[in-house]
UniProtKB/TrEMBL annotation:
Protein name, per record: TolC family protein
Organism: Luteimonas marina
Superkingdom of origin organism: Bacteria
GO molecular function, one term: efflux transmembrane transporter activity
Keywords: Signal
Length: 419
């Protein structure tokens, strides 16, 4: 049994430890300015570099689609004939001067094929812009969740250090009274040092996670705290829209583009036609006359066979990518939904485990104070409590990862509404 001098020391230690677990917000470090809420960060997606890059790529494709509608420029030719020869043509007195305007004519569907291909490429860029936006949202959600998890693990490590120190003081009191061997005191102090090292490691991981969040979100100044929790946020039901996943839409658009490029290459094998209209002046008689003409290339040597074969090969590659993408998306969606359901169950189980571990530690601490529980049993329940609390954080991170994967497939921001 403890003496009257030892009992208050241990009781106070237990009270402080219980208060620490009952109030996780009690931290040794001063309160830092929290990061913007997750919704505020998502609202800034359009200002992030990766999104701006995707928008710029789309703008370039849209500009090329607009440019594809432009007609080819005409050319102007000026000719003087029958000059500086012999006899009556020794000078320029009998010269014939011709001014001609030549206009290429895009016949045989060449212009329409080019316009449709450019529009299809712009559509692909538009879908990729949307896809890049949600990929950035997923990275942002992951960084936010990891920063919050880092902060929680640091708080848990700090609380674990406080509990270990309180238990060590209790062990020291028992050793002083002859209730425990001096070896137990050495073990307890070693546990305190190990817990203190764990706090330093958790702090380094927390600071690194907050630095990554600040960099990804392009925050003006570093943050070291999370305001609104993302780990504890309830998840809605997965979307059940009839639209194909965004990745499949991109693959389908790429196949459409490849098919239209086949048409473009086929049209290039057809003759190029140029019409000419001009005015000819006869210097000798000072008469004038119109000239008309047409120029037609003859596809005798270059029929663009290599370009057509290459376009067909790229079309086959796009078809294969589409088939693979459909299979992969279906498998990934099933896996993400299963992972989400499993992580929800894991989170509930982890929370129940934390409650059980807290009660077990509370009872063992009472037993230790009364002298009925050994220091080894107390350490075991304390270790189980720390492990269960960290397991609860791990379960929530797994749930966030599953939600990020599902949101990427559905084309939306994590924890947002389905389209």
């Amino acid at each position: 049994m403890f003496t009257q001098r030892v009992r208050p020391l241990v009781a106070v230690g237990f009270a402080v430890a219980a208060l620490a677990f009952a109030s996780p917000s009690m931290a040794i470090e001063p309160v830092a300015e929290p990061a913007p809420s997750y919704e505020d960060l998502i609202a800034r997606l359009d200002a992030l570099p990766s999104t701006l890059e995707a928008v710029a790529v789309y703008d370039a494709a849209a500009a090329r689609a607009e440019q594809a509608r432009a007609l080819p420029n005409p050319s102007i030719a000026y000719d003087r004939e029958n000059v500086y020869g012999t006899g009556p043509y020794s000078g320029v007195g009998n010269a014939e001067t011709t001014l001609t305007i030549n206009q290429p004519l895009e016949l045989f569907g060449q212009r329409s094929a080019r316009i449709q291909a450019a529009r299809s490429e712009a559509n692909v860029a538009d879908l990729r812009r949307e896809q890049a936006r949600w990929l950035v949202a997923g990275r942002l959600a992951l960084a936010y969740a990891q920063a919050e998890a880092g902060a929680r693990r640091h708080d848990l490590a700090t609380e674990a250090l406080s509990l270990t120190e309180q238990d060590a003081r209790g062990v020291a009191a028992m050793v002083e009274q002859g209730r425990e061997a001096p070896l137990r005191d050495i073990q307890a102090r070693s546990e305190v040092e190990s817990a203190r090292a764990a706090v330093d490691e958790a702090k380094a991981l927390r600071d690194g996670a907050f630095a990554r969040l600040s960099a990804i979100a392009m925050l003006d100044r570093p943050v070291q705290a999370i305001g609104a929790s993302l780990l504890d946020r309830a998840l809605g039901q997965p979307g059940a829209g009839d639209d194909d996943p965004l990745a499949v839409q991109v693959a389908e658009a790429e196949l459409d583009t490849a098919s239209r490029l086949v048409t473009v290459e086929q049209r290039r094998a057809r003759p190029d036609v140029t019409a000419a209209v001009g005015m000819r002046r006869y210097r000798e008689t000072d008469d004038e006359a119109f000239t008309v003409g047409i120029e037609l290339t003859v596809p005798l040597f270059d029929r663009n066979r290599g370009g057509i074969r290459a376009a067909y090969a790229e079309q086959r590659a796009a078809e294969a990518r589409l088939i693979a993408q459909k299979q992969a998306v279906q498998a990934e969606r099933l896996g993400a939904e299963a992972a989400l359901a499993a992580s929800n169950s894991r989170t509930r189980a982890a929370d129940s485990g934390v409650a059980a571990a807290e009660e077990a530690y509370r009872l063992s601490r009472i037993g230790f104070e009364a002298g009925r529980i050994s220091q080894l049993e107390l350490r075991s329940t304390r270790t189980a409590l720390i492990a269960s609390r960290n397991a609860a954080v791990d379960a929530r991170i797994a749930r966030v990862l599953a939600e990020i994967d599902l949101a990427r497939l559905e084309g939306r921001a994590p924890f947002g509404e389905s389209k």
